[in-house]
Amino acid sequence: MMATSYNAKDEDGRVTVCGPGGGPLLRGKKPENTALKQQRLAAWQPVLTAGTALPALFAVGLLFIPVGVGLFVTSNNIRELEIDYTGADASSPCFSCSQSFSWNSTRPCTCTVPFYLEQPYESNVYVYYGLSNFYQNHRRYVKSRDDGQLNGNEKSLTEPSKECEPYAYRDNEPIAPCGAIANSMFNDTLELFYNDPNGTKIQIPLNATGIAWWTDKHVKFGNPGGNDQNLSAAFQGTTRPVNWRRPVYELDSDRGNNGFVNEDFIVWMRTAALPTFRKLYRIIGKKDNVVPTLPRGNYTLEVVYNYPVRSFEGRKRVILSTISWMGGKNPFLGVAYIAVGAVCFFLGVVLLAMHHKCGNRNGDGDISN
Amino acid sequence: MTLKSPLDRVRDALRGQRAREKDIRNLVSNLPYEGLGKTKQPNRYFPGNAIKTTKYTLLLFIPMNLFEQFHRLANIYFVCLAILNFVPVVNAFQPEVALIPICVILSLAALKAAWEDFRRYRSDRKLNNTPCFIYSRKDKRFTKSRWKDVRVGDFVKVVCNEIVPADLLLLHSSDPSGVCHIETSNLDGETNLKQRRAMSGICISDPEFKPESFNTVVVCEKPNNNLNHFKCYVEKPDKDKVGTGIESLLLRGCKMRNTHHAVGFVVYAGHETKSMLNNNAPRYKRSKLERKLNTDVIFCVILLLSMCLVGALGHFLWLQALPSGPPYLVPDSNGHLDSPSLSGFYMFFTMIILLQILIPISLYVSIELVKIGQIYFITNDIDLHDDETDRRVQCKTLNITEDLGQIEYVFSDKTGTLTENKMVFRRCSIMGTEYPHKENAIRLAVLGEPESGEDVIFNQRPQPPLTGWSLDTEDITPDCTQHHHDNRHRSKVKGNAQSDVAFSSPLETEVIPDRKLLQQISRAGNCSGSQEIDPYLDFFLGLAICNTVAVSMATAQRQRRKPKRSRSILEDLVVEEDHFNPPVKKEDFEDTTGLQMCSLHAPSDTNSDNLSYEAESPDEAALVYAAKAYGFTLLNRTPDSVTLRLPSGEDLVFEVLDTLTFDSNRKRMSVLVRHPITREYVLYTKGADYAIMELLEHLSGKQKNIAAGTQHHLDCYAKDGLRTLCFTKKVVSYKEYESWSVNRQRALAAIDHREELVMDTAVQLETGLSLLGATGIEDRLQESVPDTIVALREAGIQVWVLTGDKPETAVNIGYACRLLEEEDLVINMSCKNKLVCTSILDCTLEEVRRYSEDPRNVDTTQGISLVIDGCTLTMALSSDLQDRFVDLAKRCRSVLCCRVTPLQKSRVVKMVREKLKVMTLAVGDGANDVSMIQAADIGIGLSGQEGMQAVMASDFAISRFKHLNKLILVHGHWCYTRLANMIIYFFYKNVAYVNLLFWYQFFCGFSGTTMIDYWLMIFFNLFFTSVPPIMFGIMDRDVSAEMLLGVPELYRMGQGAGEYTFSTFWVSMLDAFYQSLVCFFIPYLAYQDSDIDVFTFGTPLNTISLFTIILHLSIEIKAWTVVHWVIMLGSVALYFIVTLVYSAICVSCNPPSNPYWILQSQMADPMFYLLCIITTVVALMPRYMFHVLKNSIAPSPLVQARHLDRLDPSTRDEWMKEWKSFRSTSQVKRSRLSPPTSPTMETLADI
TM segments (chain A) (predicted)? Predict the structure, then answer.
């Protein structure tokens, strides 16, 4: 800009002025001679060569292999039993239930699945239900909820978010909890019996609390008007989701585990990442150190078969699993660590050989090519 | 004022439009109309002097700015995506959230525009309110007013050191001869004073100028932006026309100097002034890298579309395979489910929104930021700062820094670029006799020696030198000198002070007269009085008269340097006479040489030594100094007269009748004077030998001998690399002059074809000249020019020199600057007609081909050089020979073109650029290089002695040729590698990240689900991973500057495509695909069939991705400084802090992702860390190994240079020395053999 250039010229016109103190005040444009401005900052200049890569590779190899072994062993120590009760083939005890199903049928269908536990389960046993081919991560499905409502927001209770459509209103009454996720909640009831060798059938107590995240139960989810209220009054003016048999305030008899803070409900609402997933159902607490939580022997799984999976060709499973610091059984990570460690070690050896053989060629200064 | 109807107004506006568009304008004085209404003003159609450079107004800022921003394609892309997101069936995110990126980018750009506009507004306001003096009829004097009140037709008075407010036609000056001086440094950067003269015949040269008496019409051309041309004539009431041109125009923005005051008539005001019309926005060039980048962006678009297609198709197939409506398929609000094909169609758009970051829109912003950083570092380079002129390198075009790293051809001007353009008179030949000036040569040789020699001289002469302009206080006041530790430094400071003026240091301008010539002159002087003027005297008269050198007293010179002083000149003069008029001593060289100079100089008092000459071309100054040395002192020059002091002490005043200025077509200039004694009309002409020799009068025997002898001397001078000029004289009869003068006046007053007419009249007069003699002027090479050229050539750059000089001179300089080497095969091409030219070209080409194919020559450094002259070049450039010429030139190591015109220069550059598809760089310093500078990919201007036109047209401006070395070899290399790597990394980064989302689609039924919170995705690109690549692009340093300068061969790595090639792009794309696969599938396998939820699954993915992307950059970073560590660690820290805080406070916000406590719970899980570690290792392993293996098995020269860089500086320098000596010894058999293994090399192997 011409306009600005006048000023600029005036400012840096090469005027040499002798200040009153006497020293010449050379107002030059000489750049400052600092390391930063002259790009001479002290720098670490690593050059990746066989020589420099060797220690790193060996270190990775030596570190990963033991970690992998540890992980593998840990994973192998986890007991896990999977029982498929979908009832897809005719031989299955739940076949009839699976065939004669509709969301609206009021008469519950039950089936009994026997199984044998070969090894006793010593510590806490986690009972999961597993679904496959159920895309809880479908974009539209994931969105179909109202977090405000679930948090206990009174306004959202009566006016569910638009995201819940078409599961927001039924007969002009707002649905609580609204949305497709809640509507499709897993509603099979599972009971476990131990068949004592002497013929008696002992029900194993299943703990329904402690299965959801603590933060979910206490912060994210909340009943309208607080958890200690009379829930049926709090949910006055709302209606249950289409597929539900009972309203939300009758999910559990325990007042602390009812309404929106019902843990089964909370667990279901945490939509699974992958189409084949398991969700924690119950925990079988360890009694004492003498008796195993689940001794060896015959068991019966009694299922109240409510949840249809034929519509998506899914399967239903029950998983009994102990747990370790790394979660459930998964040998993959251990194997991966061992494999990567081994590969690194191998590469290290190769590089070492190469380094010894032709390392001298390095940097012989033949820069011209 | 009466109310006007709208129709009148429209008519008036149309008339105004017409008046402005007309080719010729008639302007009259405003004074008779003063006080009348606006409609009565004669000049009302022309804009006033108020300027407005702002783009926006307060009210319209937002709409105008938005409109402007939407001209960029990238912004439109953004907006389309945001709009797409508002369509319910396809949206992928919350529609409001999708607006964030575009809003951020638009508002940032708007803020920048607003700030810039505000600055413009402020400077406009300041300028518009600058005070000035306008004549008022009412007050009968000049009243104080402001710039914005100036209108066309006003009379404006400008006093000394004031800036001219509008384009003024100079009518009156305080100087009795009607001259005033202006400094145009604000316009073109030239600091030498320019003389302007009041229009003759108009002003009534009373002591006071009476504007009321101005009753003429000024007819001038339509405003244009040419600062050096102006056409205008004044029509007096008696229809008498007086023409004038730029010599009477004071341009807006100039500073008045050395003149107490001047009065001018406003011809153009405000935006119509030449300076405002010249005020173009900075040029926008696209660099090669950016052009290539755009094709890669297209690849990205194709990739994006194909990925979206996969998504759409996948969704369709997935839906088709479903047996019936599963509970997780959510119907729309009416309970209706779309058909699979329609859903698939919608999904295509959802995918575009989802994967939009694949198109690296932020790349453009980042590149701009990186370039700003790079330019900051270039301009701050202390090595590119010239101490003498105190100038830094200037980057005028902001976006082609990386092109500097890919230069393959350098085209250089010679004079002023390779040479100092500080002309020193060396030899002369008068009437066929040569005067070699041996003593002078010896003295110059001493001067030319490096510093040591200079020291000696300064030690001998502690006083400031003779001539006046080293009077700067700091050299004398003891207080001030304390900072200058040694004499050498002092000399630099002095140089600094003098560099404004177009001549060299006092020691260089001093000429020691040749003894023989002195005798000749004194003999001629003795026998003066005879009718015949001695040719020797005439020669020197020509030397002193035939030029346009302005004379200024030393004191005036000094006054000019203190523009901030508020005192008047008179005061200044008094002060300075008192303090700084040291007695001049002339003790130095007369004694040593033992010449009888004193007899000649005796009459010249101290006064004449205070003179300083200001010449537009340094040659002229050198000649005037040479004449002065022989006692012919130019004392004063006004437009009408030249005052000369003869050796006898007599002052002669020559009446100047006309000056035929120099132009590049005629290649000569003439001054027509009237001799005060003989009353003859004498025309002195000087010019290039070939422009003069053919104009000589019919030669008689003796004359012929003289001409032949002079020609011989000229050739000798040229061989010595001197610049030659011929001097002639012609006596014009009165009658001849009269008739010519009429033509001349007519030509000058013409508006159409004025240039041609004026030139014709000049040619008309310049005939039948009689030869006086010739001069040889030396133009010394700039320091380290040979080194620079050698380094450039070692860097694989072909250097072409294009010069207007004679071939002999050029070849000589070519050898001196090592453009040509002794052992080179020099092909000389000079032919008269095209047929010869074609055959020569064919023959040479054949020979050169055979030569280069000869196996004996493969390993030699002996290069082929081509010397071609202008006229042959014209033929070679013709379309049918072009290809052959280029083919030949391609095989030559260096090309020297002589006697080329500016147009040819640009044609050569253009041809090489287009035919060979190479990056070209042109460097020059003068107006004749402007076209070449503009034609090349990169134009570099040298701010030298010849004004600033070249600099104004250039992309980069440097002050010494040697700076080219570091600019290209170091900064060019750095900028290129940095930017190329940054861009590749950027592509990689986006693809690697976005692909995570893509892989997830295979597990969510291609429904467009994201497993990463959208805010975190935005932040990921905006904050977490944006700064490291920018820092990488600005600060990474693969090889140190010392190494790059020491081993110029390293530069070759960047030429051609360099680091940024098709394959590097695709390799990094493949790497990105691999890494995203790893980053997705390792966590996938680890979490398979577990109770993990969507966003908990996404958190480790996001984290792993961050680590991979950051560590990937760590592998690429070549030098880690503190800044690198801070930024890299800071980015990771920022990620964790922001994500932790976000997931701690967001309880039910941002549905559906709802990140509450997710990262916290993940960070409490050891699996998270184990996953992060192994995934990052696996993801980066291939790249790491690729680098390791490449560097170990086939290390590129750059890697070897990096090895050497790690050595301590002394060892490195030693190695470089060895490398250099090896290179020079193996000149004959070029480096096919490996160099001797130095002791340092063994240690390298262990690193």
Answer: 47-73, 332-353
Smallest Cβ distance to A313: which of B323, B1092, B1152? B323
Helix (H, G, I), strand (E, B) or coil at A293: coil
3-state secondary structure string across B808-854? HHHHHHHHHCCCCCCCCEEEEECCCCHHHHHHHHHHHHHHHHHHHHC
User: Mean pLDDT over residues B991-1006, rounded?
Assistant: 95
Mean pLDDT of B676-680: 85
- Residues B431-477: tens digit of each pLDDT: 888 888 887 777 777 665 443 333 333 333 333 333 333 333 333 33
| Contacts A364 to B, Cβ<8 Å | 1234, 1237, 1241, 1244
Q: Which residues of B touch A24 (CB under 8 A)?
A: 474, 480, 483
Lowest mean pLDDT across A258-262, B229-233, B271-275, B583-587: B583-587
Phi/psi of residue B1181, nearest 5 degrees: -55, -50
* Cα distance between residue A305 and residue A187, in whole Å: 8
CB atoms B1245 and A280 under 8 Å: no
C-alpha span between B1187 and B1069 (Å, rounded): 16
Partners of B728 in beta bridges? B685, B771
For residue B74, the distance in angstroms to the closest alpha carbon of chain A comes to: 28
- Residue B437 tokens, joined: 């000036």
CA atoms within 13 Å, Cβ hemisphere of B416: 27
Annotated catalytic residues of B are 413
The predicted-structure confidence for B724-771, as pLDDT tens digits, reads as follows 889 998 888 888 889 998 888 888 877 778 788 888 888 888 888 888
Q: Which secondary-structure segment (H or E) carries B262?
A: strand B261-268
DSSP state of B1054: G
Burial class (CB in 10 A: 0-12, 13-18, 19+), B354: buried
Using a CB-CB distance cutoff of 8 angstroms, which residues of chain B are in contact with residue A54? Answer: none
- B1003, B1177, B1245: residue with CB nearest A360: B1245
The C-alpha atoms of residue A226 and residue A355 are separated, in whole angstroms, by: 70
CA-to-CA separations, B723 to B813, B910, B1116, in angstroms, rounded: 11, 28, 53
Res A230: pLDDT: 82
Overall average pLDDT of the B1243-1247 stretch: 35
How far is it, in rounded angstroms, from Cα B897 to Cα A135? 76
Instruction: Give the separation between CA B1232 and CA A202, rounded to whole angstroms.
Output: 90
């209770």: which residue's tokens? Answer: A157
> Looking at residues A243-270, what average pLDDT do you find?
90
Contacts of B1092 in chain A (CB under 8 A): 272-274, 277
pLDDT mean over A250-254? 87
Beta bridge partners of B140: none
Neighbours of B1024 (CB within 10 A): 24
B687: β partners: B668, B726
Spatial contact of B772 and B729, defined as CB atoms under 8 Å apart? yes
pLDDT at B210 over 80: no
The three-class DSSP label of residue B247 is: helix
Candidates A135, A271, A343; nearest CB to B1093: A271
Measure in Å the smallest separation between the Cα of B1031 and chain A Cα atoms: 13
Amino acid at A349: V
| Integer CA distances (angstroms), B1215 to A58, B1051, B1053, B1118, B1241, in order | 33, 18, 21, 21, 9
**Stretch A215-244: mean pLDDT:** 87
Greater pLDDT, B828 or B463? B828
Its pTM stands at 0.80
Average pLDDT for chain B: 80
Tell me if B1157 and A215 make a contact (CB, 8 A cut-off): yes
Tell me the average pLDDT across B272-278: 81
